Amino acid sequence: MAVVGVATLTAVETAPPDTIWRRHRRRVGLGRSEYDQYFDGAEAATALTIGTPLRLDTPHGLAALRAETGFRPPQSYRYLSPLDPEALHAAVGQLS
To answer: Which among 19, 35, 55, 63 could disulfide-bond with 5, CB atoms 3.0 to 4.6 Å apart, if both were Cys?
Structure first.
């Protein structure tokens, strides 16, 4: 329950699940049966490609982020907003 790193979103691709699997299977981090179970019945899947990942020296705890700024992340990623803590913006600045 902490922000442990930042990365740059480099590509977004939406296609039928079989197409996404063929193009990205070596990088999805799970086996075909798990992938198929997750997308069972779905007409489309979206692949997010990230680049320049950076692990933060000090994780930013979710409780503190919420208390300071009302930070409400989704389960896995979200775009930074101007209201987010300066420490996160500074970390993103290190990606350039």
So the answer is: 55
Residue 41: both structure tokens together: 């019945």
d(CA 84, CA 10): 21
Which residues face 6 on adjacent strands?
54
10-residue mean pLDDT series, the chain (96 residues): 88 96 93 95 94 90 82 67 81 74
Note the helical H segments in 25-72. 32-38, 62-69
Half-sphere exposure of 34 (CA within 13 A, CB side): 5
Only one residue has tokens 């990230």, namely 50
Query: How many other C-beta atoms are found inside a 10 Å radius of the C-beta of residue 18?
Result: 12
Which residue in the block uniquely carries the two structure tokens 């907003």?
81
Q: Do the beta carbons of residue 54 and residue 5 sit within 8 Å?
A: yes
Question: Which residues share a beta bridge with 12?
Answer: 48
